[in-house]
Q: What sequence folds into this?
């Protein structure tokens, strides 16, 4: 049994090399929802209140982080989860590398989707932000400023922010001529305003957006010249340099609000640099933000030497290298495709591993996200051909 | 050639051990073209799966077909389809056998002998088109295009619109559906002001009461209901089924209440009595959104008696017990449980509706839902949105077709009828035989089998013989198709395109894709394309009726509207309705496709699209009645009567099956089954899931499965309660004679407590004289001895309203 377990564990590392490349962005992070349902995660866990109650709601902030931060949480609660599986007489699902990536990406992406807005709060904001000093609600358009009843009926709040973004240069002139302060939006204010405008609009059809496509967003990020100013730290191009520091725990509309808030400074800067204001259409803003969002999903590279220490201290060594045959297998195996390849293989052998640890009176080896990064760096180097 | 059960079992036994199609010795079970056999024998054995939609009944279940070297081998339910969610009925599981049926029509035929003689000659498509289009053109030139009629069945495919377009452009108002649901539609028109069938939120209801609705076997989509039913324990939903017979739905319910046939409406009104008397009804809903509950005064100052007064005076439990045979204490319990288990919902169908009083029964059940305030409420009744298909606009008409479309329709009664009534086989046959209002010269038959299914089969057979040109599109000949002059065989559904959308009662908007999983095996053509060809050959502007070059192109263009709407989602695994609702609340499109081609690719891969999120409807928009509310007192019906000349009104009411006078005529009320005879027993018929409306009897496995519950295979039986059997000296399993005023059946008895005393229950579906070697000559067709009664309000045949007597064969005379 032990031999078979070890064989499984080592075989798990026989995979093509990929580490060190840029993180491959998904085109539809919500595909992980299929894994979430198909593998019965939904039987115990909910997202946004939809799903089982045996486990925690995975849209809670605790379950937010980079891919390996999420993987660390998943790994560390394995024994508790296994107990639940046994209690509910459920089979513990096995996951492929893609399924693991989809699942973690989906959980990460949940916050992007945002929360529904409040119409009453939106109404108060419309009044307090000074929107009605230019716009009317049913009073008709004046001087080219649309009546809120006549604007398109945006279903996604982001659509409203995108429309505002496109009109920002015109609006800034209006603000200046009307001596109105540049309005900023914090928290979920944009979502609430959009909720109010959605029900105020009398347009017959709704305009909807799709949740963003990060891969397309990356292309747009360059195409719209965002990368001219927002260059970051080598391949980890976090949007930290320059104007904004984004908290990606927020919904997409809140991220968009941050973009809007820095619009005035940006407008001035672009004017000085003779850069054209980037107009966004269709799903552009959703895609760009999805790209920015997924930069936070990628982990920093780990350190191989630290990984070796983890490998030994956590007891992996005991099974995976002490036995001569296992060490030989590990050394001769193919390299790992990606960190998610490692996580997937760890997940799939966790049930046998737990049994072994229980029979040997050993504790479950918890791993922090840093330890996971380091472990991956070590194993990736170890198995590299 | 006919096959007996013994031969079937021998052949089936020979097949075990992994015999594949094309192996030796399989005839006559399968007929597989040589080319397919060769592929099976020598191919590389590559396995693939392709999704499509089952068309063996109207249910529209998603089906995954297993192919080896592109040859269909077996099927399973498509787990991605939200209607059947991986389930399939026994008939669906035998779809492959229907493909390889040895008696499929393999090319166009022309009849040379008398109907039913089986004397057919092959002809070519070109010759058939030449003759038929010649006749169609001749009629149009003579200004008689209305002399052409189409008769179809209840299907939910694209074909209905397709035929309608052809009929309008060619110029005939005579496109009829041989419908099983006209009672429900008529009742909905009276109560709601529209004929749309609602859906019932069974998932969120705490109590579901089914009045004769055998939803697990006979409903529009039994597998859909079976899937819902299978979760009722975890949902904590209670089910109560009311029926004269312990059918599959009753057996699976928490409680079965047996009832005399034809008295379901009285029971519903007895339940309404309890709800009103005990103030268990939704007073806010009734006050704001209904008309005619309390006594009222009209605009001319006339006082009217309301529903409440009528029910309280006429339908107290002890009186209802006299009608129904249901103990008054049970009626009281049922009313209390329905009123106290909110949300709770009531629905009715088959056994409750197929009587002379079926429409009134349905209005009484509608009234229960109104009393419970169920409309647009969770756990109640709601209306599903139509799929956003692209519109092709109205079919173009020239002067000839426009003039012809104003002519009266041949399928409608000629005099003193209410416009509530739909076409009936009876009216159609009578009018064809009398030549009123004009003769029918060409009849196209697409789907359905009235000669086997209708109680008016004798008249219909006479009518068919009088029509100079009858064209059938049967791919496997039916009793009706035997009367055709030409058979232009359709593809099997594994070989053709179609779509099935919004199957009745299914609780969400959906479109299922039927697509070819293989190339046609024989010289058959898609009926949709045959009509396009006939339109092309027709004179005038008929060719313009189809703004697409082929039937499958029409489907693709219709679905472009779904793509452009941005609503709903491809039915892909794991995307449940609650998740879609989660996205919608946040303003996101549910699914994303960068182009129509991508949408189409995914749509055909998964074979379905759905939108479980209903648009929120205001209660005021639900009802298109004169009052704009749910009408207990039907002003629609009253207005129809007022529109009839005074001297004919009584006759019209009688013809509609309404004997009650005054305001009661326009309220839900109980009318005893009309035309009662002195025969002592009621005969009821029912459909099984395996054989359904008779189509399943064409397959040997379905014949084998038919009577598995009573150990009667390939044969019919008559169920009789032990008390009734004792009274008529009938023993279990012996041959008996069942006699009605229309004829006698010789059949074996099945003595069981699963049927109400004084009732004879006979399954429908066997007793074919056509339909291939497996169908012919097995069992009896109970419809052959049914009295020709109908529901006068809707025109629906009253197939549960025949009186009979029974006697053991040889024991004594009747």
A:
């Amino acid at each position: 049994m032990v031999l078979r377990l070890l064989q499984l564990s080592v075989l798990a590392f026989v995979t093509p090399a990929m580490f060190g490349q840029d993180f491959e962005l998904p085109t539809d992070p919500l595909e992980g929802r299929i894994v979430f349902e198909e593998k019965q995660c939904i039987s115990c866990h909910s997202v946004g209140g939809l799903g089982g109650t045996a486990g925690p709601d995975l849209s809670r902030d605790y379950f937010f982080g980079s891919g390996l931060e999420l993987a660390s949480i998943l790994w560390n609660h394995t024994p508790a989860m296994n107990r639940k599986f046994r209690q509910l007489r459920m089979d513990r699902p096995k996951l492929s590398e893609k399924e693991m990536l989809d699942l973690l990406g989906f959980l990460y992406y949940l916050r992007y989707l945002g929360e529904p807005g409040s119409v009453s709060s939106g109404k108060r904001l419309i009044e307090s932000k000074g929107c009605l000093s230019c716009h009317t609600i049913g009073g008709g358009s004046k001087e080219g400023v649309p009546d809120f009843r006549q604007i398109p009926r945006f279903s996604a709040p982001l659509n409203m922010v995108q429309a505002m973004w496109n009109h920002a240069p015109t609006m800034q002139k209006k603000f200046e001529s009307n001596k109105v302060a540049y309005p900023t939006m914090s928290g979920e204010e944009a979502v609430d305003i959009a909720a109010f405008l959605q029900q105020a609009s009398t347009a017959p059809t709704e305009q909807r957006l799709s949740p963003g496509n990060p891969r397309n967003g990356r292309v747009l990020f360059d195409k719209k010249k965002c990368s001219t100013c927002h260059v970051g730290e080598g391949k980890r191009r976090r949007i930290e340099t320059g104007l904004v520091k984004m908290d990606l725990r927020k919904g997409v509309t809140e991220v968009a609000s941050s973009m809007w808030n820095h619009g005035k400074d940006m407008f001035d800067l672009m004017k000085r640099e003779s850069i054209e204001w980037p107009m966004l259409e269709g799903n552009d803003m959703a895609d760009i933000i999805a790209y920015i969002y997924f930069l936070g999903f990628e982990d920093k590279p780990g350190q191989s030497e630290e990984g070796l220490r983890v490998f030994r201290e956590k007891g992996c060594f005991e099974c995976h290298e002490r036995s001569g045959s296992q060490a030989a297998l590990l050394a001769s195996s193919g390299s790992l495709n990606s960190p998610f390849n490692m996580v997937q293989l760890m997940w799939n052998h966790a049930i046998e591993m737990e049994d072994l640890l229980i029979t040997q009176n050993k504790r479950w080896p918890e791993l922090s996200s840093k330890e996971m990064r380091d472990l991956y760096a070590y194993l990736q180097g170890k198995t590299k051909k | 050639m006919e096959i007996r059960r013994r031969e079937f079992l021998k052949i089936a036994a020979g097949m075990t051990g992994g015999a594949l199609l094309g192996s030796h010795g399989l005839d006559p079970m399968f007929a597989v073209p040589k080319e397919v056999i060769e592929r099976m024998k020598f191919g590389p054995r590559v396995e693939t799966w392709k999704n499509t939609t089952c068309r063996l009944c109207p249910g529209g279940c998603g089906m995954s077909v297993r192919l080896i070297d592109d040859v269909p081998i077996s099927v399973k339910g498509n787990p991605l389809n939200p209607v059947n969610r991986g389930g399939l009925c026994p008939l669906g599981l035998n779809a492959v056998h229907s493909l390889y049926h040895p008696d499929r029509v393999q090319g166009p035929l022309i009849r040379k002998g008398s109907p039913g003689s089986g004397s057919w000659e092959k002809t070519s498509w070109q010759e058939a088109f030449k003759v038929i289009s010649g006749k169609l053109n001749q009629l149009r030139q003579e200004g008689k295009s209305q002399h052409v009629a189409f008769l179809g069945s209840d299907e939910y495919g694209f074909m209905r619109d397709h035929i309608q377009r052809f009929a309008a452009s060619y110029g005939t108002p005579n496109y009829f559906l041989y419908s099983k649901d006209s009672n429900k539609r008529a009742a909905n028109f009276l109560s709601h002001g529209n004929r749309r069938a609602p859906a019932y939120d069974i998932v969120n209801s705490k109590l579901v009461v089914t009045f004769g609705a055998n939803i697990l076997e006979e409903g529009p989509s039994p597998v859909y209901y079976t899937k819902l039913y299978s979760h009722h324990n975890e949902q904590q939903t209670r089910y109560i089924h009311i029926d004269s017979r312990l059918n599959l739905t009753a057996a699976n319910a928490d409680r079965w209440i047996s009832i005399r046939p034809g008295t379901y409406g009285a029971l519903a009104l007895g339940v309404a009595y309890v709800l009103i008397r005990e103030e268990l009804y939704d007073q806010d809903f009734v006050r704001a959104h209904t008309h005619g509950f309390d006594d009222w005064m009209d605009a001319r100052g006339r006082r009217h008696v309301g529903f409440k007064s009528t029910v309280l005076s006429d339908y107290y439990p002890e009186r209802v017990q006299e009608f129904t045979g249901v103990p008054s204490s049970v009626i009281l319990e049922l009313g209390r449980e329905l009123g106290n288990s909110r949300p709770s919902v009531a629905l009715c169908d088959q056994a409750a509706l197929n009587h002379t009083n079926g429409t009134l029964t349905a209005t009484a059940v509608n009234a229960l839902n109104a009393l419970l305030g169920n409309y647009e409420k969770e756990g109640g009744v709601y209306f599903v949105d139509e799929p956003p298909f692209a519109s092709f606009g109205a079919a173009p008409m020239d002067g000839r077709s426009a003039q012809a479309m104003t002519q009266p329709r041949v399928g409608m009664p000629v005099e003193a009828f209410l416009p509530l009534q739909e076409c009936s086989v009876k009216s159609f046959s009578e009018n064809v035989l009398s030549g009123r209002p004009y003769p029918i010269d060409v009849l196209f038959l697409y789907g359905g089998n009235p000669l086997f299914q209708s109680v008016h089969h004798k008249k219909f057979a006479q009518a068919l013989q009088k029509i100079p040109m009858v064209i059938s599109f049967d791919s496997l000949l039916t009793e009706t198709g035997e009367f055709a002059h030409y058979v232009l065989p359709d593809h099997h559904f594994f070989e053709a395109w179609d779509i099935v959308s919004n199957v009745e009662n299914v609780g969400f908007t959906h479109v299922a894709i039927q697509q070819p999983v293989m190339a046609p095996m024989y010289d058959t053509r898609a009926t949709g394309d045959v009509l396009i060809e006939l339109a092309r050959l027709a004179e005038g502007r008929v060719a313009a009726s189809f703004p697409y070059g082929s039937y499958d192109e029409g489907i693709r263009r219709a679905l472009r509207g779904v793509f452009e709407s941005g609503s709903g989602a491809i039915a892909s695994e794991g995307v449940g309705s609650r998740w879609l609702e989660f996205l919608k609340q946040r303003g996101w499109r549910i699914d994303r496709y960068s182009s129509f081609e991508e949408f189409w690719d995914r749509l055909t891969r998964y074979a379905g699209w759905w939108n479980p999120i209903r648009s929120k409807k205001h209660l005021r928009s639900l009802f298109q009645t004169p009052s704009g509310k749910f009408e207990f007192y039907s002003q629609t019906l009253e207005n129809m009567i007022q529109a009839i000349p005074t001297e004919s009104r009584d006759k019209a009411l009688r013809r509609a099956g309404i004997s009650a006078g005054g305001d009661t005529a326009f309220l839900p009320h109980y009318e005893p089954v009309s035309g009662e005879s002195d025969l002592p027993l009621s005969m009821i018929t029912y459909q099984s899931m395996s054989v359904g409306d008779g189509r399943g009897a064409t397959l040997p496995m379905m014949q084998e499965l038919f009577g598995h519950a009573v150990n009667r295979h390939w044969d019919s039986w008559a169920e009789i309660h032990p008390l009734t059997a004792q009274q008529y000296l009938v023993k279990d399993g012996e041959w008996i004679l069942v006699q009605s005023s229309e004829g006698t059946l010789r059949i074996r008895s099945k003595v069981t407590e699963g049927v109400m005393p004084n009732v004879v229950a006979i399954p429908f579906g066997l007793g074919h004289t056509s339909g291939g070697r497996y169908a012919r000559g097995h069992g009896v067709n109970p419809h052959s001895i049914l009295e020709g009664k109908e529901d006068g309000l809707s025109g629906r045949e009253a197939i549960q309203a025949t009186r009979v007597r029974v006697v053991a064969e040889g024991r004594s005379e009747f």
Q: What stands out?
A: The radius of gyration of chain A is 25 Å. The mean pLDDT of chain A is 80.
